[in-house]
Specification:
- This is DUF1573 domain-containing protein.
- It comes from Aureibacter tunicatorum.
- InterPro entries: DUF1573, Ig-like_fold.
- With 202 residues, the protein is an alpha+beta fold.
- It is built from one helix and eight strands.
- It has two domains: 74 residues; 104 residues, Immunoglobulins (Immunoglobulin-like).
- A hairpin with a 5-residue loop joins β7 and β8.
Length: 202
């Protein structure tokens, strides 16, 4: 009888130990699988974030490019380098690019009109005209000059407080080839009585 009881206790103890060992093994297996799942979730999140950022940046870039293209299309004075065909581009053909006004007295205002023809195949647009001196003021056609049409640039020179040989340059920027064209007005200014002993400018 005692042997039977002992055998039963041994069997029960063995089953208890086997059950505990199985629970520990299952717990370790569950803990091992958790980092792998977390890593997969992190990779998926990073990939999704990257794709979202890339798509957003590309959208903004395209949107900005469309704005620039629209601005260029709506402004006829903006001509890109790619749009200029040297063979068809607008061209100045001035009757003269230097005007000699001779000799004038100090205080006289000299005015001269530089006439030109657009010999190109596209409308000519003058974007700016500036002088090398504040005493010289250029005025130019603001409207596009059609191919074969004529235009003009009026230059006024104020000889007040000037004496001696004068040479002033007018720089024109346009959608032509070449882009910059220069005109010159020159002459000599005699000093008036008010400049005999006063300051003068060359």
């Amino acid at each position: 009888m005692k042997n039977i009881v002992k055998s039963g206790l041994v069997v029960a103890l063995g089953m208890f130990l086997f059950s505990c060992s199985g629970e520990k093994s299952e717990s370790k297996s569950t803990e091992t699988s958790k980092p792998a799942k977390a890593e997969q979730a992190h990779d998926h999140s990073s990939h999704a974030g990257h794709d979202h950022g890339h798509s957003h940046d590309g959208h903004n870039h395209d949107h900005g490019a469309h704005k620039v293209e629209a601005a260029v299309a709506n402004d006829p004075s903006v001509v890109s380098a790619e749009a200029v065909d040297p063979e068809n581009a607008p061209r100045f053909n001035f009757e003269e690019d230097i005007y000699d006004f001779g000799t004038v007295d100090a205080g006289d205002i000299v005015e001269h009109v530089f006439k030109f023809t657009n010999t190109g195949k596209e409308p000519l647009i003058i974007q700016n005209a500036s002088a090398s001196c504040g005493c010289t003021v250029p005025e130019y056609s603001k409207e596009p000059i059609a191919p074969g049409a004529d235009g003009k640039i009026t230059v006024k020179f104020n000889s007040k407080n000037r004496r001696g040989v004068q040479s002033k340059t007018v720089t024109i920027t346009a959608n032509t080839v070449p882009k910059v064209t220069k005109l010159k007005i020159k002459g000599e200014v005699n000093a008036g009585p008010d400049l005999a002993n006063g300051p003068v400018r060359q």
